[in-house]
Amino acid sequence: MKVLVVGGGGREHAIVTAVAKSTRAEKIYCAPGNAGIASLAECVPIQPMEFGKLVTFAKERKIDFTIIGMDDPLVGGIVDAFEAEGLRVFGPRKNAAILEGSKAFSKDLMKKYNIPTAAYESFTDAKEALAYLERAKLPIVLKADGLALGKGVLICNTLEEAKAGVKEIMEDKKFGNAGDTIVIEEFMTGREVSVLSFVDGNTIRLLSSAQDHKRAKDGDEGLNTGGMGTFSPSPFYTKEIDEYCKKYIYQPTVDAMKKEGRPFVGVIFFGLMLTEEGPKVLEYNARLGDPEAQVVLPRMKNDILDVMEACVDGTLHTVDLQFEENAAVCVVLASQGYPVSYEKGFVIEGLEHFEGREDYFCFHAGTKQNEDGQIVTNGGRVLGITALGNDLMQARTKAYDATEWVKFANKYMRHDIGNAI
Ligand code: AMP
Ligand code: GLY
């Protein structure tokens, strides 16, 4: 089977690695891919939002199955574009990807179907939003409605900050059209857990839990990033919590989307907060998490193509998802200055240490090959260093050891990934 993966970050490297393990994959393409993905797949210089070019490529090369890794093309309707040409593609259609694409939509869905989440109001008028803030309890959370690279969320401790935030989002358009609508929601406290799942429109199968570290600096200080590291499973995600979420969150979300005439096929990522009142949904994403995919997929026993095809065919009820009884930790090696500003183009050394090892992975997030054939840094998040271990402690020790194997100028990482364990 010929497979095309759309995207070019650490998540897509983890997806391509899983696909490469399948005995059914004869040839893998990745658009646009990166320098690490290039060792497993043929990278194609087409950008993820170039739907027409991707569809043409898939038809010309007779691609049997396309996997969309990223949120932007999903929310933009890439699955509809592929399906219109009779191509098999994994991911939600545009009318279902809205679960991630609009926070106002997802909050309204949760309210309508009694799925536990923070109390909220949404506004399209800045004046009304400001008036609401005068009576709201602090701290308060502001969210730009649309996609904003995980940066459209502001947690405000004072009324002044909140007012300035509404101005930034709705008037200054800091996140572009994503800020035409704003969601203002209650501030919650508790531990965060990411639970990813495969969905075929009716049936949902859960992947092992993970926890992300979103802040840039040790001790959860600094700015929010795309994710500085992650571990799986989360020891805080107990059997009781799992049972509660299955009953009140997971299947109810799938059923709600179906009832709304928006059957969801693909991955639903539940961002949960474990509050004193029980687990609540922080957000939904319509694709695998990055870096969560880098710890969850290496622990999955199933052939990823079998599972994804079952989603597309509506036969997921026949699939039993299985995970190794081990643990994984991923430490992101970033460029100094991420997520604000950073230099690129530094040569990366030591990548050969990962070759031929089964319990260490070096997932490339922002890398490319330069004219001299060297692999150089090409983004804020450069590499995701993942190690498997018998338990989280061992996986963490191994992952941090492996971060020393790799050298590049301006290398930056957090030193406390998984420390809360
Ligand atoms: P989101 O993109 O909605 O997941 O938000 C990004 C991050 O902001 C989350 O991972 C939380 O750390 C934080 N956050 C979002 N909503 C809330 C909330 N209602 N209460 C407290 N923290 C929140
Ligand atoms: N790591 C969070 C995300 O992928 O959205």
Structure characterization notes:
Strands 12, 15, 18, 19, 22 and 23 form a 6-stranded antiparallel sheet that branches. It is globular and about 60 Å long. The protein has helices at 10-21, 51-60, 71-76, 78-84, 94-101, 103-112, 126-135, 159-171, 239-259, 292-296, 304-313, 392-403; strands at 2-7, 27-32, 42-43, 65-68, 89-90, 120-123, 140-144, 153-156, 182-186, 191-200, 204-206, 211-212, 215-217, 221-224, 229-232, 265-275, 278-285, 327-335, 360-364, 367-369, 375-377, 381-389, 411-412. Strand 13 (215-217) and strand 14 (221-224) form a beta hairpin. The chain has 421 residues and is α+β, with helices and mostly antiparallel strands. The chain is built from 12 helices and 23 strands. The chain binds adenosine monophosphate and glycine. Glycine (GLY) binds at residues 150, 212, 227, 285, 289-290, 292.
Question: Which characteristics define this entry?
Answer:
alpha+beta; 421 residues; single chain; binds glycine; 23 strands; binds adenosine monophosphate; 5-stranded parallel β-sheet
